[in-house]
Amino acid sequence: MKNTPFFALLTLANLCFGAKLPTTFKKCDKKQSDFDQCLSTAVKDALSQLNVGKKEELGQDPLVSLKITKMSNFLDLANSLKANRMDFEKKTLELDVDYPEIIMNFEYQISGKILVLPIQGEGPGRMTLIKPRILLTLYLEEYEKKNKKYYKVVKNTLLIEPQGLHYKLDNLFNGDKALGDNINQVLNDNGKEVYADVKTSYEEAFGKIFATVSDNLLTRVPVAELFSEK
């Protein structure tokens, strides 16, 4: 996957392995009235710093090199974040992102029907989610370790709602261009219906990844290091 947006906390989790966040990262007082606005600003600032690169301090490559399995290149996160919301009473953390596009490159193998039409082939493919809105919600649980309070992720929900979609499957029907172009046209004319069939599986798979790496941060960095309290 290229140009994949997601979750500021995910970014920090993959790049920060110590017990403290870098001193240049802004912290927000969880009692302040504009906490959510402060959190959004702090996250954008942190992502901007990570895009520049803090390998020496954080112990890994800069943000632009971040990779998870076959997803890569977390770019332009700071400009795409709409809002972050932390509910300390309900222990939920949300990230709302409007992103230009998500491009997924893959190898496929298919034999069957799609929208009642026969389809057969194998080779490279691409699916582009155009202007997707992404909403990730983490449900947290607080616990104590060595006299310090931590959060851990116990559940997550992830919604990915693109405004448009584009599909391209190469080498359909053993390279028959006419048949291949026809099927690709059908896929694109019915993009939302096709996406609806795979939407849940994508959201569940990505949600598990982001919840896991977010948990890596939360279980290593005390709550007091994440959020100040005057």
How would you characterize this protein structure?
Keywords: Biological rhythms, Signal. One of its GO terms (biological process) is circadian rhythm. The protein is α+β, with helices and mostly antiparallel strands. It has one domain: Super Roll (Bactericidal permeability-increasing protein, domain 1), CATH 3.15.10. The protein is built from seven helices and nine strands. Strands 3-4-7-8 form a four-stranded antiparallel beta sheet. Strands 5-6-9 form a three-stranded antiparallel beta sheet. The chain has a two-stranded antiparallel ribbon with strand order 1-2. Strand 1 and strand 2 form a beta hairpin. The N terminus is likely disordered.
Features:
alpha+beta, 3-stranded antiparallel beta sheet, 34% helix, 230 residues, Bactericidal permeability-increasing protein, domain 1, 7 helices, single chain, To_sf, Haemolymph_juvenile_hormone-bd, disordered N terminus, elongated
Q: Layout of SSEs?
A:
Layout: H1 8-15, H2 35-52, H3 55-58, E1 67-68, E2 71-72, H4 77-80, E3 81-87, E4 92-98, E5 101-114, E6 117-130, E7 133-145, E8 148-161, E9 164-169, H5 177-189, H6 191-218, H7 223-226
Antiparallel strand pairs: 1-2, 3-4, 4-7, 5-6, 6-9, 7-8
Helix pairs in contact: 1-2, 1-6
Q: Strand content of the residues, in percent?
A: 25-35%
Mean pLDDT: 78
CATH topology: Bactericidal permeability-increasing protein, domain 1
Number of strands: 9
Per CATH, the superfamily is: TULIP domain
- Broad shape: elongated
Distance between the termini: 42 Å
Low-confidence stretches: 1-18, 52-75
Described by strand count, sense and barrel closure, the largest sheet is:
4 strands, antiparallel
